[in-house]
Fold:
Amino acid sequence: MAQFTIPERNASKEMRYQMGYALADLAHEFENIVAVDADLRSSSGLHIFEYFHPDKLIKMGIAEQNMITVSAGLSQEGFIPFPCTFDAFSRRFLDQLYISVAYAQTNVKVLGAYVGLFTGKAGATHQSDKELGVLLRVPNLRVIEPGFNVEMRQALRVAVETAGPFYLRIVRCEVEENEINADYQFQLGKGVTVIDEGNDVGLVSTGYMIRTAKIAADKLLNKGIGVRLDHHPSLKPFDTTLLYDLATKVKAIVTLENHCVSGGLFSLVAEALALKGVQVPVGAIGTDPEDFIHTGHVNDLLAHYKMTSDDVVAQAEAVLRLK
Amino acid sequence: MSNFLDPFNFEPFWQPYRKDTKRFQEVFPHQAAFPELVRQTETLAYLIRSYTVYSMTCAALGHPGGSFSEADFIAVMYNFILRFNPFDSKWNQRDVFYLSKCHACPALYAALALFGYFPLSDLTRYGAWDSHLESHPDSTTTPGIEISGGSLGQIPGVAVGRALGIRRHGPDEGDRMVYVLLGDGECNEGAVWEAFMAAGHYRLDNLVFIIDYNKVQAKGFVNTDMSIEPLAEKLAAFNLEPWEVNNGHNVAEIIDLFNTLHTQRRGKPTAVILNTVKGKKVSICQYNPNWHTSAPRETGMAQDWLWELWERDGQRLGIPEEFPVRLGKAITVVPPLHDNPDQIIEKQA
Structure:
């Protein structure tokens, strides 16, 4: 049995641990699910999967490239492999992902753990805020960034039930069980309108930043600024229909992502709007693409990169002035 | 022999050795059938080389050096070892053959066509726009290709996953095998050694790595660019069982080794060092890095290559003289489908 402490199912709201439980549950239902570990299981949450399915966790040692190609091979024999390591290390296996998974269209579901800033004091080598720049340009790859645990579980199920390559960005930190409503259902390629209370500013969030966006929306509404908040867990394919609907109704947009402001959500939005000739000013909340993210408490990182709800309010007011 | 007016009609002088390619059975040197198996496999290797010259020249693309060094081995695998069904390429009891040195796919494409995976005439459009024969193989379009590839060092890991997966299916698939043909220069890639380490760790004795040790890599000699010696010792240290084919162009030796390997599954993956000559059987290409990449640039040169192959092998194997002559005359460099208004001149490799 596992040598690590297994948190009680309901004891922790951390997405990594809930992911471990969710994958273990799915593996009872889908017998061909296997997880592939590169020596990070008690950090990524796979140790929980291992506790329930010790024979279905395949250990590759500290070898991320091999973890991905071995997963491709396993999928060719009908297994549904979930290779999992830190999202930052996608930098190490990008070519394997590009060719052995995406080009070959193998049924591999990559879990990128510890995404963005909410990772503990991970530091420049382990922080992942640039990776979407390439991941969103890998043909055939679907890229999902869930913002809360219900959405993460639903996205995992969609990944199992949909043939082909997936990449899911999973945060380490505590998240809410549900940020939207009890009827919410994640859909591949679809965004969702979370708040629809006025047409001044449109907030567009992905992943964990739905939390910050909701707090910022309250603050804006209290200031008398109308807000619509759209959440986009599906980054690839991206719901441009919802985006165009938003852009034709609001005066300005602010994007929020747990990633740098180039190559990720902001770029998706800006590119889509430019192609359609929609002239709406767009502000961007996220990290600086020119920076390595140095070690520090997450509060200090969020303050430095102006990623708090107060910063969102300030950005919203600034872009509204551009209109 | 008027059939030979058509150089794509090879059936009068070669057909698959096995009536049923879904079965493997040893043929030993002391058995009466052995000389015929050898002659027949050498004929296949001759055809693979000849059609490789044809397709590369039509495409103005290709890697003759590695295609020629592996030709005899690929002939043995498809003619004698691998269990497969060309008319049901996904047959779930097949052995898996991965070509990890993907750039040397012209020889594999020729073999697949000769066994009926797709029409031999498809070779004309190797590398052309809209063709299913990519410059580096695409498993989503070409029947018989087990996985897409081209960036070296990845497929050994895929093979480890495949062998693990087959083992997880249990005893009824115990006899299925995974074979991977790697390049020697490819062994410079660290990922190859990650795969070797995992194969040894998981004791995958349903997995055979074959290293086409032709001593030449893309731009130089393995020995001087980045040596992989001592190779057998390295493989053994990674918990693989090393075997050696002294001359990878001697089909009898390859056949004999694989007769033996069949009985040697003892909880270790197998690694076969296949000693070969890069560019084997075309003088200008032999042991010459300049012919790692580059198809013959004109049909006259391709016709000379075809003639040399016939003089070395075709003649003694009973192939009529008309065959290389007519195959050479059938070569036309396939033009692009579109004109370009900007007059871009591209000289292809």
About this structure: The first strand of chain A starts at residue 33 and ends at 37. Chain A has two domains: 15-170, 192-322. The radius of gyration of chain A is 19 Å. Chain A touches chain B through 28 residues (CB under 8 Å).
